[in-house]
Amino acid sequence: MQNLANSGTIRRLLEEAGFSFKKSLGQNFLINPSVCPRMAEAACSALPAGQPRGVLEIGPGIGVLTVELARRADRVVAVELDQRLRPVLDKTLADFPNASVVFADVMKLDAAALIEERFAGMEVSVCANLPYYITSPILMMLLESRLPIRSITVMVQKEAAVRLCARPGTREAGAVTAAVSYYAQPEILFPVSAGSFLPAPKVDSAVIQLHIRKTPPVQVEDEAAFFALIRAAFAQRRKTLVNSVSAALPADKASLLQAMEAAGLPPDIRAERLSLEDFARLAGCMQKNKV
Ligand code: SAM
Predict the structure, then answer these.
(1) Angle CA(286)–CA(287)–CA(288) in degrees, nearest 5?
(2) What is the pLDDT of residues 136-164, one digit of tens each?
(3) DSSP readout, the chain?
(4) Residues contacting 285, CB < 8 A, separation 6+
(5) Are 99 and 69 in contact (CB under 8 A)?
(6) Apex CA 140: angle with CA 138 and CA 142, to 5°?
(7) Pocket lining: 61 vs ligand 1, CB cutoff 6 Å
(8) Among 18, 86, 212, 226, which is most exposed with the fewest C-beta within 10 angstroms?
(9) Whose CA is nearest to atom 10 of ligand 1?
């Protein structure tokens, strides 16, 4: 098979299939030939050596990343929503019997069951050039379902990369930063320019890697309450923590301030200054004081 990551090849394959890009599905296909080998290498080398390697891909498009993964992993299963890509993928993956495609919406799929069925006895990682309209929901679904995966290597918008990989307690942090840090150790691998895609998006991108933690870095009694607090804290990030949280949760300001004092937090602090440990301590104090 010819080099797929090439705008001429992609246009021809898509023309033959009568395919037109759907912006609503985040269809920006990679045409920079150096990106997919680097992503595939990063995803596969994050898996332990000497054991069969499986990679779950989300949104294969025409299969440009899929073939690079199939060259390095023992098995690749790619989940694609757009059925119109079936005839294209039949062609591009014809030489890769270890790669298969499941046509489904990744957000509606039982990912745990799929991993159990297709990757039994394998070490598994996730790799994808994510559809940008659902970057955070996909990442949160993968992390919160506590799938038996080692790492997640994904292309996201540059701004999202900065937020996802920020350290809690810094200006770049948001609710998603705290959630990512709870489940994984994030790392920005390399930047990718907008011109690397067809059609070119308006913004640059970056490839990030999330190394899944075996245990969270903080102890939390009620995870649902902990994450509800974090979302409420960042709901109005320009406001102080007490104002943002009391506006979003059924928590009155006076009791919230008491819980903050018990957690050693000043009354005028903003969400972006809190570390994961601060959020865990505050959630504990709120639970104790029944805020
Ligand atoms: N991997 C290809 C590449 O790098 O050229 C395509 C990446 S493109 C940014 C995102 C892909 O995700 C598209 O093929 C799109 O159809 C697919 N997609 C969008 N929403 C999806 C969903 N909910 N579930 C599965 N695939 C989805």
Answers:
(1) 90
(2) 999 999 999 999 999 999 999 999 999 99
(3) ---SSSHHHHHHHHHHTT----GGGT--EE--TTHHHHHHHHHHHTSPTTS-EEEEEE--TTTHHHHHHHHHSSEEEEEES-GGGHHHHHHHTTT-TTEEEEES-TTTS-HHHHHHHHSTTSEEEEEEE--GGGHHHHHHHHHHTT-S-SEEEEEEEHHHHHHHTSPTTSTT--HHHHHHHHHEEEEEEEEE-GGGEES--SS-EEEEEEEE-SS-SS--S-HHHHHHHHHHHHHTTTS-HHHHHHHHSS--HHHHHHHHHHTT--TT--GGG--HHHHHHHHHHHHHTT-
(4) 259, 260, 262, 263, 291
(5) yes
(6) 70
(7) yes
(8) 18
(9) 131
The phi, psi pair for 188, rounded to 5°, reads: -85, 125
Does the beta carbon of 28 sit less than 6 angstroms from any atom of ligand 1?
yes
Count of CB atoms within 10 A of residue 145's CB? Answer: 13
In the reported structure, the alpha carbon of residue 80 is separated from the centroid of ligand 1 by a whole-number distance in angstroms of 6
Summarised one tens digit per residue, pLDDT across range 182-233 is 999 999 999 999 999 999 999 999 999 999 999 999 999 999 999 999 999 9
Residues 37, 40, 45, 51, Cα dihedral to 10°: -130
Q: Which two tokens stand for residue 35?
A: 């990106």
For ligand 1, whether the C-beta of 244 sits within 6 Å is no
Query: Is it the case that residue 1 has pLDDT exceeding 60?
Result: no
Can you tell me the distance from the alpha carbon of 123 to that of 140, in angstroms, rounded to the nearest whole number? 21
**CA distances, 139 to each of 7, 112, 240 (Å):** 28, 14, 28
Name the closest-CA residue to atom 5, ligand 1: 29
Confidence class of residue 291 from pLDDT cuts 50, 70 and 90?
Answer: confident
The rounded distance, in Å, linking the Cα atoms of 17 and 192 is 28
Nearest Cα neighbor of 221 from 261, 278, 264, 281 is 281
